[in-house]
Each structure stands twice: as C-alpha cells, then as structure tokens.
Amino acid sequence: MSARSQAHSADLSKFLKFAGIGIVGFAVDAGVLQAAISLLAVSPYAARVGSYLAAATTTWWLNRHWTFPEALHAEPARQWALFLMVNMTGGIANYTVFAALVASVPSVALHPVLGVAAGSLTGLLFNFLLSKKFAFAA
Question: What is the pLDDT of residues 76-85, one digit of tens each?
Fold first, then answer.
C-alpha cells in the first residue's frame, strides 16, 4: 500500500470515528434539548444553545481520546476552547438548519429533535475538517 493510500485510509478511519462520536453527541444534544424543553419549559431555541454546548464538550473529549490521540499532549482547556472556536462554522450551519426547520416545518416544530438531526448532519463535514486541521493538529 502506498503512503498516499495509507494516509487516505487513516483519514477515512478518523472520519468514521468522528462520525460515530457525532452519534453520541447527537444523543447528548437531543437528550439535553428534550430535558430543557420538558422539565424546564425552555423554548427550543434557548434549549438548543445549552444542548449544543453539552454535546460539543462530550464530542471534544471523546475525539481527543479516541479519534485524535496524537493530540493528547495539548493542554485540555486550550484545546477545548480551540475545538469550540473552529467548530463554530459547523455549529452555525447546524443551528441555522435547526432554527429554519423549527420555524418552517410544522412536524419539526412539534418534534425539535428532527431539527437537531438535520443540523448535526450539516455540521459534520465542516467540523471534521476544521477539527483535524486546527483543534487536533499534531
């Protein structure tokens, strides 16, 4: 196998791990969102801010340890802050899709978790590329 093929294989492996961790992040995001709406009577828009931060923190920690272990040497608080900053592009795309769907699709307004799913998929590619290049750069 050529060096280029090995690099592509490693990138694919990292992307699949990142996506798998994204599923965990989705579960955290959706769970916190539903809890805030149901238990605290918070609007879905405000609840999503907290649910996103909970999910982003969870995915940062898991990616730091499993997807990008070569970046474990980095100072955690700085890396977490950088992860949040570089993922802002994906986060903005994620939230924009979520808010647009909640505002315009009645079934999503009734079940905001559907908007979370659509937003999460939108942000996945942005977040992987930016995380790999900036937050977890070796």
Answer: 999 999 999 9
